[in-house]
User: Fold these one by one.
Assistant:
Number 1:
Amino acid sequence: MSDYGKAFALWREGSATPWRDYTRHAFVEGLRDGSLPREAFLHYLRQDYVFLIHFSRAWALAAVKSDNLDEMKAAAATVNALVNHEMQLHVETCAAEGITEADLQATPEAAANLAYTRYVLEAGFSGDFLDLMAALAPCVLGYGEIGARLGKEATSQTYKGWIDTYAGDDYQEVCRDVGALIDAALVRRLGEDYTQTPRWSALSKHFDTATRLEVSFWDMGLTP
Amino acid sequence: MSDYGKAFALWREGSATPWRDYTRHAFVEGLRDGSLPREAFLHYLRQDYVFLIHFSRAWALAAVKSDNLDEMKAAAATVNALVNHEMQLHVETCAAEGITEADLQATPEAAANLAYTRYVLEAGFSGDFLDLMAALAPCVLGYGEIGARLGKEATSQTYKGWIDTYAGDDYQEVCRDVGALIDAALVRRLGEDYTQTPRWSALSKHFDTATRLEVSFWDMGLTP
Amino acid sequence: MSDYGKAFALWREGSATPWRDYTRHAFVEGLRDGSLPREAFLHYLRQDYVFLIHFSRAWALAAVKSDNLDEMKAAAATVNALVNHEMQLHVETCAAEGITEADLQATPEAAANLAYTRYVLEAGFSGDFLDLMAALAPCVLGYGEIGARLGKEATSQTYKGWIDTYAGDDYQEVCRDVGALIDAALVRRLGEDYTQTPRWSALSKHFDTATRLEVSFWDMGLTP
Amino acid sequence: MSDYGKAFALWREGSATPWRDYTRHAFVEGLRDGSLPREAFLHYLRQDYVFLIHFSRAWALAAVKSDNLDEMKAAAATVNALVNHEMQLHVETCAAEGITEADLQATPEAAANLAYTRYVLEAGFSGDFLDLMAALAPCVLGYGEIGARLGKEATSQTYKGWIDTYAGDDYQEVCRDVGALIDAALVRRLGEDYTQTPRWSALSKHFDTATRLEVSFWDMGLTP
């Protein structure tokens, strides 16, 4: 098990079935053994470009909702990394497949994509920093867990580039940092016994819903 | 054609196919001729209860985003009507079918339901009053148009209660008021030639997306 | 001491000095003994009209940020009462003084007025329902406390109309309801021991800051 | 005259008096000729630290409210520069004066400071990207104009460090970029004739109010 902090471990345990559906999804297994059709992967990449735009907006909202400089620095650095680096990587990967940046920008947003990002953003707008973190966690940390596992278990080179990105030290460090950010934010607002407050179950619900929306995102990826 | 103002007429024309898919959906036709399975109708009512909670929140957001007292009064009256009256009607209709308020509150939110309301709320949070109005319009005015048509074309008494609500003078007046509110808000912010501004196409996109999400909502209604 | 619930009692105790500066302000004493210059009172009424617009928007935001139907109903009813009744009362009081509604709408917003309402709204947008309630409480409940006291201690009839409004049963009931809404919202999110969570001090800070902004508002009222 | 684009030139012209009050304020003249008391400068620096936290949050909100990748990149880079660089510079300048980072974090927020940042943030939350830009412009671009002038007209070395920061090529480039960002955002949303839409006067009002709040901020700086 990846160690991305205490809250994540508890949330994952509390959403065991959807978490497994997400992290062991047929799409993921197809990345692992190379059986994922190229067409599905490219469809996923296009949708993920649109996803990353809204996901970056959600991390920017985390900076808005921070209540101390450490949280702001972490959120600002994440936005910058997403917008000025990860999206660039995406553009380059797609370019190598003959998909231009103009194609990416013209991608019609799939229903499962829209549902997921708007859920996360709305949770953040309507709630506070913690609501947003709970809704953001499954994507960031789930990709970390998937990447770490496939880094060890992959039986094919076909999707090595994708796997290396998320299995790599850089991304794994991001996951540990985000896990630590979440743990500190919980204690800072709700105290050491945060799991004893009613807020904890509301936050766990956000984590659970976002995890289910990840499952739908993979489902969508399989049906170009 | 129902006359709910100029902007609505243009938006509807610009989204002719999804608008038809929405307002002539099999679910709607089943209400008209009474062929809609009871189970589907009750499933829809349960989901609509959850929908109305978030829809009311979106109208409350319209009051927040108003920039004059007339808009605030209109939005505040709508929220009050939704929360303190329409939801009550819902509760009573459901009670007559043996569905308690506790059942309603415990309804798990369907994916198509969540996608729609979060889209509308997020459009409002991220944009201004006009973005929110464009995303709210298909629900309010589409139900008006459906109600008005079924009021004339229904061939069955089975769903007479539902039809009468939306065909009735009260609801039709709400639709004319909302249409007028939107027209005035557009002129007030963008000028008489508002369709010539780039904003108009962004607003039309919100209307179009929300209309497509209405289609998915009916689809969901048909599959309890 | 007015009994508007547990959280209010604790907040007031924790901000004893600014609370006294607010509720025993020279402006308030001038209302009590009739010594407040008419010019100052009319200046205050004009600014309060602008204040109420933004204050109503803040209560609408509370409806958006509610997480259950009871909170929504309370917030929606408050917005409706403010926008469709209290503001009307304001307009009528001002009309009796020769100030037209057009005058009211043209009132340039004083700096102390702007500072207060934007603080409250921003606390609500950036935080959750509790942050908003803590920032809204000093105005709603302070006017209740001032009204109740002046209802007993007034030595002049000059500002009887104003005093009767806030001393009256209707307004006192609103205060008890808002106090109960806040107490329930705290328990619902943070548990019975909510004062033991770090959130409590952040909320108390909002209450304290908003109380200080009320003092500045009275100061502004005295300097037309 | 600094050339930071078309919209800025029009806004500045439309708010000529407050703009002059802001950019030729006694505080500014004291920086120019070295007559500003050290105590006032340090008071200003402390408050500016608190200001920059909320100002960074407002730029993060601009990333949230962007509707294309270019706007997001610009906003994200600005947040990152503010949070991870400009604030660091601040900390170092203060440290050289014996003010620790802990002192900075413990600074009680002055009323004029709070009024300004909450106004900007609320304008952004309630409105769209343009509302936020109009409210952010006076600070960013006014400091550019002040810096550029003092770079030429300073008659003392006392505040050379401060002046060099804002007169320097890096900051001047930021100003030209922000001016271009605003011009492009206006055309993108309202069309080439954006000054002919009613929105333009609402945006000009934001610029005007924020400029007046800058004047109050300098006033506050002069009274430690």
Note: Residues 42 and 120 of chain D are 24 Å apart (CA to CA).
Number 2:
Amino acid sequence: MSAAVEEFNAYREKMNSRILEDNNKIIKRIFNLDTNAYMKGALDVKTKELLGLVASAVLRCDDCVKYHLETCYKEGFLKEEVVEALSIATLIGGTIVIPHLRRAYEFWDELEQSSSKDTVLKE
Amino acid sequence: MSAAVEEFNAYREKMNSRILEDNNKIIKRIFNLDTNAYMKGALDVKTKELLGLVASAVLRCDDCVKYHLETCYKEGFLKEEVVEALSIATLIGGTIVIPHLRRAYEFWDELEQSSSKDTVLKE
Amino acid sequence: MSAAVEEFNAYREKMNSRILEDNNKIIKRIFNLDTNAYMKGALDVKTKELLGLVASAVLRCDDCVKYHLETCYKEGFLKEEVVEALSIATLIGGTIVIPHLRRAYEFWDELEQSSSKDTVLKE
Amino acid sequence: MSAAVEEFNAYREKMNSRILEDNNKIIKRIFNLDTNAYMKGALDVKTKELLGLVASAVLRCDDCVKYHLETCYKEGFLKEEVVEALSIATLIGGTIVIPHLRRAYEFWDELEQSSSKDTVLKE
Amino acid sequence: MSAAVEEFNAYREKMNSRILEDNNKIIKRIFNLDTNAYMKGALDVKTKELLGLVASAVLRCDDCVKYHLETCYKEGFLKEEVVEALSIATLIGGTIVIPHLRRAYEFWDELEQSSSKDTVLKE
Amino acid sequence: MSAAVEEFNAYREKMNSRILEDNNKIIKRIFNLDTNAYMKGALDVKTKELLGLVASAVLRCDDCVKYHLETCYKEGFLKEEVVEALSIATLIGGTIVIPHLRRAYEFWDELEQSSSKDTVLKE
């Protein structure tokens, strides 16, 4: 994995653990919902991840965008599909979304590089 | 069509005409993009409409939600699919999305009633 | 109760029922959390209601503001306490909060009039 | 004046009086700043009003937009200048600004009609 | 004090000085209001700080959250009280608040460590 | 140029190139509009840049603020004019704009230092 992806995931997991060990019921349930909401239901998992990505982008939450980019990547989305989703987010959310689009592109590149590096390492 | 749906569409069309007859280039092109962005590309039309719906819901724009509910309805989405998309929007956007969820439900009911009425009238 | 307060509550309850009868698990749990989060815990109920009011005000959600104004009213808050909370919301959220402040004041007046009318009717 | 403009101003003034008679110091000072900030300084009054309009539009506050449209109108802005400012707001804020643009256009029309009616009445 | 807390405060103070030495009247008065609004009034200081924290959290302003966490810490709030306030913010503001919750937890840890270190140093 | 300004511009240009080489039509057109919208029209270029700055500030987009600060600087705005525009943004957007105001001040200082350094080097 690329250093940037690893660092993002490590911080996320470390702090999520800190939060959850506190046992605040409301927060724990929201975290729990956050897992359940993206499971297969009337809509399939891929569609839901894309919805999560676009909602995160228009709300301009870089960490949320990164998280959903990573799950979209794992779900096998092509870059052009992800970019098309982000283009809709940029149109709806306006040019203030562009700085987040730049960081999203950078993170996607990291995800692709991680993956090709992983492939090389495994061989 | 139900009175509420008709009124919404009539106002929307009347004012869009007023805006476009003004010939402001930037606005005209944004309106143009707003049509093109939802056309079939790497993603299909249905997925794109759902992305538009969820982005509108988390940004809490009632008119945008109504517009995308109507196109989702025309694209043949089942209510439970639309509700699942809106449930993700409510989780991501928080309980402040709930008042918009209430109005979205009301408008979807109007769309369903319009449609059944239309069917009756056509027979 | 004043007509405005009654109408607000009636619509809210009617649409909440419509939403909940749909049995979307995520939405039902969010509604459930929305009740639990304001119950006595480390913080008392009054403080929590005031937090809900201020969060609603800075996010400029009129319906959420009305809902929390009503619960604040029932919890026995004095008007000057509520106004002081709203003054902090206006400072943090800026002058774009002012139109929502106007509607909050109007709704509080309705709540006070409802109550005095109720008192008169009961006598 | 058109009924819509009059109603908007009357409600605004009535509720502002209600708010100010309460003597909350923070709110009173914010209202006071709201007057002073748009007075001539390093920037002229017209530029400041246009800044207020665009900020209100991207934050999607209809009442704030109406207020600044009215002051822009009184300051003698041409419609195409106001529309150009709103086009920048729509580009920066995205297509979710469009419903607010429709209502802004409608209000500007009311302002123009009010004015021509006033002219006729004065003659 | 921990390095992170110190750095945050140092930057904040340095830039606030830069801003205030410029003598822009509107900005100076807003800064002044920002001090006065949290002083004891109809509501006590602790409640007001908690309102500031929750408003900052739902508006997803990391620096504002840090500032109010520090004042809450100094006012003697227990962690579970602060977490309960943040749980309401996360419910109202949705899962996009979670990345800010992670950073809030990290900063609170810094505040607690600073304090225990200070105690050790003073002995 | 100062290191901070250079780094900001370099990243911006690098990632914009990455985005544009992808040939997503919607995004390319939005980028194109983003150039055209600030050209001379009914309003002059300087006014438009100031509108872009204030819209970016109330939407709390640091990168957008930096970009418009740089163009405002190049257009010859005096610091007190820019500060006055930002004071209106802070009033409209509230105290949550203040952390962005601090970073805006810091970036403006960088722009001024860059410029004086450039002058020295050219001599």
Note: The mean pLDDT of chain D is 94.
